[in-house]
Amino acid sequence: MAILDEIQANIVQLAEGAGSSVVGIGQRWGVGSGIVLAPGRILTNAHNVRGDEVTVTFADGRTAEGRVTALDVDADVAVLETDTGDAAALAWATGTAAGIGTPVFALANPGGRGLRVTFGFVSGVDRTFRGPRGVRITGSLEHTAPLLPGSSGGPVLDAGGQLLGINTNRLGEGFYLAISADEALRGRADALARGETATPPKLGVAITPRHVARRLRRAVGLPDIDGLLIREVVEDSPAGRANLASGDLIMAAGGRPARSMDDLFDALQAARGGTLQLTVVRGTDERTIQVVLGEDSPSAE
């Protein structure tokens, strides 16, 4: 009973303290939750945002219009600008990262319909899931604190009320994923708060599905090699300027094998704004191509 009493005391304490820093996002459809990041700033999931403005509901029932400062769709985070009143910013966790078995508390205010606080444990770390556009989000926290629909964007806290993660994905069967509140998320949130909208790096190519690529190469008598077959190159893109061509097979990117789009995207992320080295097979000839990725490069899938 002593343990249950302690959990109850923690829930009450967090509801009365950190609860005022948890807000509702939206009011009709596509509702979610968010947290006070700093005076005048709200952090939430990008998938909770529809358009440039959204209604923000505070724990005391007050509503205000929030303006999207910037968002990062691939990382599924967004920062809003609004009048946060007396609501304090949540403190980021410091020290040792949460591990399997760490007790956690999930808070939410789904669309402003009232504060919820639930209890669970970390059930997995360094988990991976797909963001709104299918890009991998790595390093997430898996936990068992139950969540209602509309809880995404709300915080996962430790017993001291420090921020461990931002709830974002329901796995089903009682498990949930949260974007870890690590230095990477903190830096991304700070950049978004400055209005720096994240632009994903683009190579400027369309890739043929893997099974189709194998069939095409076999049909013309070329070796069956693992890689990404280029179907189309966008004119005046980084790939176009590097003279990549339709039919080229990307075998490696950034010195690592390129067997999937995830491999290529990881290499693009690592080389953001710089030069990406590709190992390409054209016909039967293997060659190394240096692709310059400028921030001002045209967008292309």
Secondary-structure blueprint of this entry?
Blueprint: H1 2-16, E1 22-25, E2 32-38, E3 41-44, E4 53-57, E5 63-72, E6 77-81, E7 103-108, E8 116-130, E9 136-143, E10 155-157, E11 163-172, E12 175-180, H2 183-193, E13 205-207, H3 210-219, E14 228-233, H4 238-241, E15 249-253, E16 256-257, H5 261-270, E17 275-282, E18 285-292
Antiparallel strand pairs: 1-2, 1-4, 2-3, 3-6, 4-5, 5-6, 7-8, 7-10, 8-9, 9-12, 10-11, 11-12, 13-14, 14-15, 15-16, 15-17, 17-18
Estimated share of beta-strand residues: 35-45%
Shape: elongated
**Biggest beta sheet summary:** 6 strands, antiparallel, barrel
Per DSSP E runs of 2 or more residues, the count of β-strands stands at: 18
Task: Summarize the helix and strand pattern as letters.
Answer: HEEEEEEEEEEEEHEHEHEEHEE
Whole-number average pLDDT?
Answer: 89
How is the largest sheet built, in terms of strand order?
A: 1-2-3-6-5-4
Give the helix level as a range of percent: 10-25%
Can you put this structure into words, describing what you see?
There is one protein chain. The protein has five helices and 18 strands. The protein has helices at residues 2-16, 183-193, 210-219, 238-241, 261-270, and strands spanning 22-25, 32-38, 41-44, 53-57, 63-72, 77-81, 103-108, 116-130, 136-143, 155-157, 163-172, 175-180, 205-207, 228-233, 249-253, 256-257, 275-282, 285-292. The strands form three sheets. The protein has a six-stranded antiparallel beta barrel. The protein is elongated, with a radius of gyration of 22 Å. Mean pLDDT is 89; it is low at 295-301.
